[in-house]
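User: For my dataset I need records formatted as: sequence, then structure tokens, nothing else. Please produce one.
Assistant:
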Amino acid sequence: MSSAEAATCPRCGAPRVEAPDCPRCGVIYAKAEAHALAAAVAAPPPETPGTWSGEENDDALELRLRAFAIPIALLLAGLLVWTGPGHFLVRTFASMWVHETGHAIAAWLCGYLAFPGPWFTPIANSRSPLLVLVVAAGFGYGVFRSWRADRKTWAATLVALLCLQLGCTLFLGAREARQLIIFAGDGGCLVLGTVLMATFYAPARSAIRRGWLRWGFLAIGAVSFADVFALWWGARSDYDLIPFGQNEGSGLSDPSVLTELFGWTTGALVRRYVILGVVCLAALTAMYAWALWQGRNEGAGAVAPE
């Protein structure tokens, strides 16, 4: 304590007298000095420029990640796809698995048993009523649990998936279901790739974000989407890019099945994949804009005065 502070009352600042208490405010000098010393020790040190400031800096970092992560991931994925070795790695370790998963998910939604594997997904010849009930019950249970946990967005998403599953099972005939399942290979790379990239915006407390899974999902989603979208976008002007013919060990390729067995024209095939890719990009752009808007609002709310 300085000499100036010692000559005044620690509480009211009046000149100090030769007495145990202050004549102006009545505080006991010794107690007031002990209280001031304890408060000074308990107070956190003042922040200096360039130091970490907890949640405020976390929010600023998250906003930057939301602004740049997906655009940069798509740019790098596009560059990787345009190189020979990079395209081979992308196709072998990422987009092939997403492609086969797309076949399998479409089959399950239509009521067919399917098991995704490397380069080929075996699909049952007829619908399985038991599978239809199991999938519907799973969606229904998910809706119930999400509603109980007050996760309205998850509940609405699962309701939409349940309606989609019932529609694909009840209103699509065997021929139409088969076409959807075949189309959902590259279609799955577009749709599932978009979903995987969108997991980057998972809530802060979710396992996807806490466990850094969103970075892996972002990478897989970006390269899978870029691989397929680049193919069909380029095929608008060059049909030679389309992989017609035989797949080694698994029969006709998906484009050949759709055109030769189901009568799709090449133009319709290209157009449908391009439209699906553009719709997925539009949905991802909308999620990107919403995430930025939400991040800015959360950041503003965190620093707003009380």
